[in-house]
Structures are given as structure tokens and as C-alpha cells.
Amino acid sequence: VIIPPWYELGEDVKIDLFINTRSMMEMNLKVIKKYFDFIQTQIITGGFFLNINRYYKDSVGYPIKLSEYPYDENWNVISSKSSWKQQDIHQLITQRRTGKGNIKEELAKIGKIGETFIPKKTNLLEAMWQKFKNFINRYRYQYL
User: How high is the pLDDT of residue 61?
Assistant: First the structure.
């Protein structure tokens, strides 16, 4: 079932497994929060959440980090690793529990890995000069 964030289920309807692959990385924080509220309300105790998304993105006008996704503390990490052949994407499988789990510790580790994917800030003139040099180096022998 594909469920948009505005869809409402009765509180008595519980779900065993949620999967989000590569779509939260296209959402803003408000929408991500709505999805997490929905997931954390509707999942059964012992249910699973597969989350495969980028470590870092800024395509919505501000930075969003996977390590800052709004997991509450009632999750245990089952598996956490970089995606195969896509090192900027993380694969996280968690299981819902009734008490405090280890998700916050894992998110801190993910945050350290994710720091390597945050673009380095350069000044505009320096960036433009580098692009110009790359262009010249790529095409200079075609015109000789």
C-alpha cells in the first residue's frame, strides 16, 4: 500500500512493516515529520521500518540529514549500513519496541558518516574559476 502523508487510518489499524526507499530524501522536514508521526502511531510493537535514504541533501532549500530524522526513542536497530554501490545512501532497518531502544546512538554514528557527504563550502569566484579551468582542460585539444 502506498500511503500519502495526509491519509488517516483509525488508531486501531496497526501495520507490521513500513518501507521508505529514496523518497524522504525528496521531502521537506515538515512532510518527513508527518510520515514519522504516522509510522510511529500506526506500527505494531515489534513491527519493522526499512528506511533507505541519502545521508545529506539540500534540494529543498535547506540541509536535511538522515541522522536528524525524527525517530522517537522506541526503536531498536536491526541493520545499519551504506547501500551497495551507492555510498551516499544509507540502509536502516529498525524494529518498534515499547521501551527505549538504541536508535539515538545509531543516528549519531550515521551523522558522523554523513558528514563526509556535506558539500564543502567555497566562495563563488573560486567555484566559477574551477569550473572554467575544468572546461578549458576538457576541450582545449579539440581546437588546436
Answer: 81
